[in-house]
TrEMBL record:
One Pfam entry name: Ribosomal_S21
Classification via InterPro entries: Ribosomal_bS21, Ribosomal_bS21_sf
HAMAP family in alphabetical order: Ribosomal_bS21
Family (UniProt): Belongs to the bacterial ribosomal protein bS21 family.
Tagged with keyword Ribosomal protein: yes
Domain of life: Bacteria
Keywords carried by this UniProt record: Ribonucleoprotein, Ribosomal protein
Molecular function in Gene Ontology: structural constituent of ribosome
Any one GO cellular component localisation term in the record: ribonucleoprotein complex
Protein name: Small ribosomal subunit protein bS21
Gene Ontology process terms (BP): translation
Length: 56
């Protein structure tokens, strides 16, 4: 989990923007959404192949 320390003379809004950027870069929210619900193996395989087809 990213950690942000508010610097001297820095507003809370700027620190929050920096924190959000660090969280996005680390992929924390995407990882949470990925593990939010259970997918059966067959359905996971199907989604993976559909995504590969879309990318190609």
């Amino acid at each position: 989990m990213p950690k942000t320390v508010v610097r001297d003379g820095e507003t809370l809004d700027i620190a929050m923007k920096r924190f959000k950027r660090q969280v996005n870069k680390a992929g924390t929210i995407q990882d949470y959404r990925k593990h939010d619900f259970f997918l059966k193996k067959g359905l996971k395989r199907k989604l993976k192949s559909e995504n590969a087809r879309r990318k190609h």
